[in-house]
Amino acid sequence: MATKGTPKDKDKVKKTDRDLDLANSVRGVWLVKVPKYISDRWEKAAANTEVGKLRIRKVNGAKPEVNFTLSDAVCAPLAGLSDMDKLDLVRNSSTYQQIPKEHKFKVSSIAAQTLGVFSHAIGDPENPAVVDKLSVEGKVVQRAECCPNNSSLYASIKKEALTKAGEPRRMVKQLDKHVTTSFKPVANHATNLAHERQKKAEGKKMRDDKDKVQEILFALFEKHQFYNIKDLAQETRQPMAYLKQILKEVCNYSVKPPHRNMWELKPEYRHYKPEGEDDEEAKKKGRNESSSDSD
Questions:
Q1: Which helix (H) or strand (E) holds 211?
Q2: Which of 29, 45, 72, 243 could form a disulfide with 138 if both were Cys (CB 3.0 to 4.6 A apart)?
Q3: How far apart are CA 250 and CA 232, in angstroms?
Q4: How many CA atoms are closer than 13 Å to the CA of 218, on its beta-carbon side?
Q5: Kind of pairing, strands 28-33 and 102-108?
Q6: What's the pLDDT tens digit per position in 96-141?
Q7: d(Cα 225, Cα 240) in Å, to the nearest integer?
Q8: CA distance readout (Å), 222 to 42, 240, 271
Q9: What 3-state DSSP class applies to 149?
């Protein structure tokens, strides 16, 4: 009995028009597990360079002996790394030191499994002739594990890994001498000193006569309709509490945007015309001029 699949099932099974190259499907390949420090060096090695040599010695009635020798360029210590980069390598089971050159393969059978190696060559979007290509590189016929021979180099790598693994990334240091940079603490900052000098130069603010302060305020409000109390205190040179008492008598405090926290003269003290009246007068003037031109 046939059943219709759900849309999600149909999305999972997607057909592609790519061809699979099976030219090397009969070729036998080895699946080898290598230490992390070897795989890191292979990734950093230049393309088409020799990374090592493999020697296989057959033994009658026993498994063959397989020895692997790394090239000198791969075994050499890494240069030009920072302390943090070196620590990251050690924490990732790798190293920046010189690595062992001689290794041995522990060979095991793979009769119970069927494994293969595939490759994917990415095409060039600008060149239609170069397309994506999937290929079978071979069938796994042997499994092995690459193990270093007992050597002082391998012992030092493992010792460093165990030592560095317990070290924190950030450490507390005790300073033997005081900090000599420009960030040392100061008793009083330059901005505070400049403010104190300005206050001394201006002198202490004294209360002027109320009528005189009101005249100054009226003159200021002729220039602008709204003022902040700090600007008014700077212009009138009056104490803040005394100035606020006078402002409450002649001004209104705005609590709504767009002029929030600003002061404006009360209507009875204003002698400027609202913006609407100015617009109406301008329109009337324009109509009068046009009528005079027509006459």
A1: helix 210-223
A2: 29
A3: 13
A4: 14
A5: unpaired
A6: 888 899 999 998 888 778 899 999 888 888 887 778 889 999 999 8
A7: 20
A8: 81, 21, 9
A9: coil
